[in-house]
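Operator note (shift B, R.M.): manual run for Alpha/beta hydrolase requested after the automated queue skipped it. Running by hand, logging everything below so the morning shift can see what happened. Input copied straight from the record, untouched. If output looks odd, do not overwrite the archive copy; leave it for review.
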Amino acid sequence: MKQSMILLHGLFGGLSNWEGVTQHFESRYDIHIPLLPIFDYHLQDNLEYLVRFLEQYVQQHGLENSVVIGNSLGGHVAILFTHRHPDKVSRLVLTGSSGLYENNNLGSYPKRGNYEYIRERVAYTFYDPAIATDALVNEVFQTTQNRIKCLRIVQTAKSAQRNYVAPILPEIQTPTLLIWGEEDRIAPPDVAREFHQLLPHATLVMLPACGHAPMMERPQEFNHILEDFLGK
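Run finished. Output pasted below as returned.
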């Protein structure tokens, strides 16, 4: 049987964010890309709701000994899940993860209906603004057109800001890889270095000329670094 690989997207991310990773590893790994239920209605803390969703997903699919990879908010979910279920995670990979500090740069509420503002915010995610294609901008714009979805986004971002993971990081014994963009303006390089310092078994790789989503902006380098880590 193939080993499982779970890929967790960020607050504005989607399944397509992991296309390069999926294409590179799908022949050797059982890849799962659950769509995080960020827009669900519930009365729980938003981040806690996402962690419980992942717990249920792992249980329903009978996943054991998984490689868990998270970008941005997905990294935050991965950290909490790994801390609670170390027996379920063989390797943890974080890229641009929240949990220590994140500049989401949205203000108190995303500007609905302002297409150029949304384009600017999406481009801000990357070092190379050309990565913010029309299709990507349109996807985010459509999300922000929905008042309820906007509210859920803000609630989830605030939940993540409240959940400071520094106290639990030294307790995570899982081998961890940190792949970070040197030009990440949302979770800056100092965040990566703090993760590296606090996680007992962490390896940090910085990618030059790269922003908040290395798996999208530098897919070949990302996959090479990940491949090397998983082979050790």
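Quick read of the result: Residues 177 and 226 are 8 Å apart (CA to CA). DSSP finds nine helices and six strands in the chain.
Leaving this for review. - R.M.
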